[in-house]
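Write out this protein's structure.
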Amino acid sequence: MKTHVADQALPSVDRLSSLLERFRVRAHLFHAGALCGTTRFAAEPGRAFLHVLRRGGMRLTHRAGGKALRQLELAEPTLLFYPRPFEHDFHNAPVEGSDFVCATLDFDGGPRHPLVQSLPPLIVLRIAEVDGIAQTLDLLFAETERVRCGQRVLADRLFEVLVLQMLRWLLDHPARAGIHAGLLCGLAHPKLARALTGMHEQPGQAWSLQAMARLAGMSRSAFAAEFKAALGTTPAEYLLRWRVSLAQSMLRNGASVKRASDELGYASAAAFSRAFAQVAGTSPRRWLKTC
């Protein structure tokens, strides 16, 4: 049975830094001001979007595979977060339109980014309900209202701060954002978060089920059941996929197979290659040639 624990005391561990240090997100401001008529945002591989509706109202539509999908009517300041490619259209009044600040987001690893994999295709959050972002938005809007030295760079960094603040809020309120399973739900669990953060920070450690459960302060059976309910996978499978995600990032950045094997705790390069193929479907070297 899935357990939602957002209202319980959160663990005294940093649940995001180890993830975002290894798999970064980079924002690029591309629009500030009114949007009138219909504006289409294409689904581009590896490209995410974060839109901030500052004022006004509009209709939002989506299409996939030639079929019309979800439609939304927005009438108040809202954050629209598309963590994965998803074609969407803004339908505004033909003259006055609505006021937006928009950025593209590039997550390291694209769709393989651990947080991206755990999120729904669209998150809609009323700005009024997301605590702690008012100052960031005030600074962001101020930077987009007139041209100043370093404006674009500072606006990009403020969007990245906004992403981090939004992820913090999602960790505290996963169910309110429509997230009912996956990594964010695991990190929202006071006990599971300790084990997950340990694996994220020390992926090369010899993580047995007993070691994970001990860090979480749970019995092995309770830990395994809670983990599967929250993340939809077993602890061993999650650790394997986490290590392979790290290995893929290391290989793309020029690391050797032996170095990846050593840092991720495998007894040999052959053992590492077998684990890698179990997830990626091919050997590390063959995967690197196609990525």
